[in-house]
Amino acid sequence: MSFTGIFNRAVMAAVTLFGVAVIVFCLLRIVPGDPIAMMISPGASADDILALRVKYGLDSSIPVQFGVWIREMLTGDFGTSISLKRPVLSLLMERLPATLELAFAALVFGVIGGGLIAILATLARRTPLESVIDVLNGLFLAVPDFVWALLLVLALGVAIPIFPTSGRVDPSLSGDFATNFYLIESLVTLRFSLFFNVLSHMVMPVLALGLPLAAVIIRTLKEALNEAMLQDYVLLARLKGMSETRLVVQETLRNAIGPTLTLTGVQFTFMIGGTVIVERIFSYPGIGNMAIDAVINRDLPLIQGIVLMFGLTFVLINIAIDLAGNFFNPRLKHG
After folding, report:
1. Distance between CA atoms of 313 and 120, rounded to whole angstroms?
2. Is the distance from CB of 59 to CB of 52 less than 8 angstroms?
């Protein structure tokens, strides 16, 4: 990718984030409800209410509030949470690693599981096994992540209690980490008991998020592989005696990755948004769970910070998709 292409993407990312900031800031100010009213005691005076408004910058007009917020945000000050009384940026940095580990674990599960099943279905095309895979995959596509979460809690948390149904690690072990990247830290430091404890808490949330993603990958990659199997170069390779497995893995897979990669990136952004409900169901201490509490408490600074963090994540993922698309498709390298 050329320098001009990278510069254009950076400019578009900045414009997108600014647009997200404007929209979320304005929407939060026009929806019904007063965050200050949720903080004051029944006997608070008018002076007490005014003091709180001044403290959180809610006494000025909306344009002035927006200008102050943008100016402070550019210096790294995202404001102070109304409900938690802590800096928003520190709260985000504290919860973000949990959500990132969960999302990327679900991505790895979805890509590997979906990719392998798509290859299997391609090798089994025009057989009863392909029909079974298609029927099951259609079912998986129809079930959203939060339904999978509820089903997994009932099946593997209540009926057959194999995995923990809440939290990120056993409370007795939560003080054994130097960073908030529990899974990565425990693996790098070779503390496998901690690693498997963290992993056991992630299994059901990862399955809930990863199963719909795997279903999308199966359908997309299978269709791309079947289309590639009809090309002339595959017929020539087959005439030379190449086995079906080698045809799929060595010849057609690299040509089918492009469209699958693009759609996977889009679905990954949707999946990150889905962590809000899934984290709530499993009481997983990530940004999504915190977002619901922030909305309930009308915590404007925290909501704004969370939405911007999600927006930044989506922008970075889209840039990564573009770069990966250029890498896997040589025709786009000079575009």
Report:
1. 33
2. no
The pTM (predicted TM-score) of the whole model is 0.84
CA torsion 294-300-303-304 (nearest 10°) is: -170
Helix (H) or strand (E) holding 157: none
State the DSSP string of 4-71.
Answer: HHHHHHHHHHHHHHHHHHHHHHHHHHHSS--TGGGTS-TT--HHHHHHHHHHTT-SS-HHHHHHHHHH
d(CA 23, CA 87): 22
Q: What does the alpha-carbon distance between residue 116 and residue 194 come to, in Å, rounded to a whole number?
A: 29
Residue 80, helix vs strand vs coil: strand
| CA–CA distance, 110 with 260 (Å, rounded to integer) | 12
Return the top range by mean pLDDT from 19-23, 185-189, 249-253, 273-277: 185-189
Structure tokens at 60: 């000025």
Cβ contact 198:169 at 8 Å? yes
Helices (DSSP H) in 124-231: which residue ranges? 128-142, 145-152, 182-188, 192-228
SS3 category, 96? helix
Is a pLDDT exceeding 70 seen at residue 325?
no
The residue count for the chain? 335
Q: Domains of the chain by range and CATH?
A: 93-298 (1.10.3720.10)
Name the phi and psi angles at 87, rounded to 5: -60, 135
- In order of 174, 263, 334, the CA distances from 325 in angstroms are 40, 11, 12
pLDDT at 3: 66
* Residue 146 contacts residue 281 (beta carbons within 8 Å): yes
Instruction: Please tell me the least confidently modeled range out of 84-88, 108-112, 264-268.
Output: 264-268
Burial of residue 187 (CB within 10 Å: 0-12, 13-18, 19+) is middle
3-state secondary structure of 189: coil
Assign 87 to helix, strand or coil.
strand
Report the C-alpha gap between 201 and 174 in whole angstroms: 13
d(CA 170, CA 172): 5
